Each structure stands twice: as C-alpha cells, then as structure tokens.
C-alpha cells in the first residue's frame, strides 16, 4: 500500500522558482514510478518578494502548511533590496528553524573522482563528510535583537543543555547510519573554541557525555580555526562534524567552496518532528529569469528529503530513491559535460535538470 507524503513547497525569491520547478518535476516522476509512496505538493507563499507585496514575509497560513506537512522543500529566499525596517534581511528560513525547533543543520560535503574542485586532491581520494550546524541558538540567538548604542554593540551567544543534547544524539545517530551503510568508518568531531570560551567548554562537556554512550563510534575534538585549515589540507579525514550555529554557518560555506561552489551545496534543518530541505545558496536575483541557475543543490536537497522521509517512516524504497537521485547528480557533475555557468559550463537550468533525470532513467 502506498504511503502519501504531503510536501510544503516554498519556492522563494529570485532564482528560487526556476530551480524549484524542475526539482518537483523529478520528484513527481520518481514517485510516479514507485509502488511504495506518492508525493503531494502544496505551495506556501513567503519570502522577500511576498513581503514587498503584502507586508508579511512568512504568513501564518504558510506556517500552518509547513506544520501540517510531512516535510518542507524550501528554495532560495531573500532579496538584497528588500529588508525589514531595521535593515536586516528577509529570512523566513531562519524563522522556520526557530518556530519548528529545527536544531540540526545538516550540510553534506561530497567530492567524487573526476569532479572539478579547488583542492589538489591526491589521486584516488574522494571527500564525503557531513557538517552538522546547530541551527536555533548559538550566536544567532539574538538575531535582530542585539543591543546597539553609540559606542558599542552586543550580541548574545546562547548554548542550552536541552538543544545541545538533542544535537549530539543526532550527530552520533547519523554517524552510526553512515557507518552501517559503508559510507564512513563512524566518527564524530566536536568543533568548538573551548580553549577560550566557557560556553564552548560547556558545549564540549555535553558532547563528551553523549560520546560515552556510543563506544562503537569514534569521537574527537577540534578547534574551529584548526578545522578550517584541515578542511582544506585533509578533508577526507572527517566523517561527521558538529558545531555551534555561527561556526557552522562559516564552515558550511567553506565546504561548499571545496565542492566547487554553493550551486552544489544542499542542506537540511531537522528537528524532532519537522524538517526543511533547501539549497545553501542565495536567490541570485542578477540571473533570475534567465534559465541560468544551477539546480543541483536544490535537487540534492530533495534527495536528502527522500532519504529522511524513508528512514523516518521505514520506507526503504524512498531511501533508495534518495540515494539514486544523489548519485545521479554526482554522476552528471563528475562527468562535467553538462554544467551550468557557475561550474564553468554553458548549460541552462533546464538542461542540467534534464541531465540528472537522464542519469536516473
């Protein structure tokens, strides 16, 4: 019997609708071939353009759609010339993270043999690690509410036991899953700055307590500055990395750079009951409407969604389709024949998406 999954779709701003459409079409085709699941999609208006028209960046009706869905597929959000009155950017994705308590920001970094990368990888080396960014507190805690006077400004970093313990359990569970499928040896690295800040010593203490519960998974620590160095020098040494919100924000862009750009960087923000899947890149309004955007990060985010739903609802066909979709993107990128402009090619958004479906067929 087929299980029907309801997907909330936030098509976003700028290039958002252009990369959302082919992604949804691929998902519809995959589901149409399956006897194990089907997908329904419901549009949820939000974003900077919606704010400019209506004065609401994340309407309550769209929030209700998100809450009632099985998963949320969210495209690029924000426009540089549309901001709140205080000057901050329109970012419904952050509002969703906080409202739905999506504490685990999952940022995969994968470099396959043959893939163009700024790194000078040794022959035969591939890179496959996951950065988990705490997504609801840390240095983002006072977003839009920092204290600013004539002479100084203050933002508050918050790390709580409640969220951190959930985060570390998630990290070790992910490492176990990766180990069980043969993708990695099973290791979690806590990335912090515990040598300077008491807050990160507290963070590390909770990490160590969770690590003690998983003797089958290796655990170690790394300071964030050293991690940035090692991500360039020896990224193949990492498996699962877990860190605070701001550190994760910065390191995830470094990870995207290692892969060749944000156009290849998918992400998920996952909580106990909900999950959002979205590309890491922005809305690129300068190329909106030109059919020139790279859809790969959006398609890879959709693959992550299939995998998460499949694991959550014990649907191995969905998990397999998620793997197939990810590997199809990796195949197209590694071959290098059909790449969009950001990756050095000339392919359109449509051509790149069609190539992914061709690799699946």
Automatic annotation (TrEMBL):
Name the Pfam families for this protein: Iso_dh
Q: What does it catalyze?
A: (2R,3S)-3-isopropylmalate + NAD(+) = 4-methyl-2-oxopentanoate + CO2 + NADH
**InterPro entries membership:** IsoCit/isopropylmalate_DH_CS, IsoPropMal-DH-like_dom, Isopropylmalate_DH
This enzyme's EC code(s): 1.1.1.85
- A Gene Ontology molecular function term of the record: magnesium ion binding
Which pathway does the record list?
Amino-acid biosynthesis; L-leucine biosynthesis; L-leucine from 3-methyl-2-oxobutanoate: step 3/4
Q: Does the keyword Metal-binding apply?
A: yes
Q: Which residues form the Isopropylmalate dehydrogenase-like domain?
A: 6-356
> SUPFAM superfamilies annotated for this entry?
Isocitrate/Isopropylmalate dehydrogenase-like (SSF53659)
Quaternary context: Homodimer.
Q: What is this protein called?
A: 3-isopropylmalate dehydrogenase
**Organism of provenance:** Ascidiaceihabitans donghaensis
User: Species lineage, top-down?
Assistant: Bacteria, Pseudomonadati, Pseudomonadota, Alphaproteobacteria, Rhodobacterales
Q: Which gene encodes it?
A: leuB_1
């Amino acid at each position: 019997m087929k299980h029907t999954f309801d997907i909330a779709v936030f098509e976003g701003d700028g290039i958002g609708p252009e990369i959302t459409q082919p992604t949804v079409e691929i998902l519809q085709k995959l589901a149409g071939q399956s006897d194990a699941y089907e997908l329904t999609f419901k549009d949820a208006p939000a974003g900077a353009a919606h704010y400019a028209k209506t004065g609401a960046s994340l309407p309550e009706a769209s929030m209700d759609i998100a809450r009632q869905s099985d998963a949320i597929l969210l495209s690029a959000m924000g426009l540089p010339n549309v901001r709140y009155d205080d000057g901050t950017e329109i970012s419904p994705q952050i509002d969703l993270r906080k409202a739905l308590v999506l504490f685990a920001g999952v940022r995969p970094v994968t470099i396959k043999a043959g893939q163009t990368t700024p790194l000078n990888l040794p022959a035969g080396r591939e890179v496959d690690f996951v950065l988990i960014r705490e997504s609801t507190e840390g240095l983002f805690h006072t977003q839009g509410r920092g204290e600013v006077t004539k002479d100084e400004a203050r933002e508050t970093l918050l790390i709580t036991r409640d969220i951190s313990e959930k985060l570390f359990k998630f990290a070790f569970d992910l490492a176990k899953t990766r180990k069980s499928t043969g993708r990695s040896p099973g290791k979690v690295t806590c990335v912090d700055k515990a040598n300077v800040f008491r807050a990160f010593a507290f963070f590390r203490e909770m990490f160590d307590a969770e690590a003690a519960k998983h003797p089958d998974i290796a655990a170690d620590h790394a300071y964030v500055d050293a991690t940035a160095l090692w991500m360039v020098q020896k990224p193949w040494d990492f498996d699962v990395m877990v860190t605070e919100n701001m550190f994760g924000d910065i390191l995830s862009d470094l990870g995207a750079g290692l892969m060749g750009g944000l156009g290849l960087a998918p992400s998920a923000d996952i909580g106990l009951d909900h999950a959002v899947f979205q590309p890491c890149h922005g809305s690129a309004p300068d190329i909106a409407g030109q059919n020139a955007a790279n859809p790969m990060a959006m398609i890879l985010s959709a693959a992550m969604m299939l995998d998460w739903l499949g694991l959550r609802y014990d649907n191995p066909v969905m998990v397999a389709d998620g793997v197939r979709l990810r590997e199809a993107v990796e195949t197209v990128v590694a071959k290098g024949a059909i790449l969009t402009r950001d990756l050095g090619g000339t392919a359109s958004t449509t051509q790149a998406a069609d190539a992914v479906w061709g690799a699946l067929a």
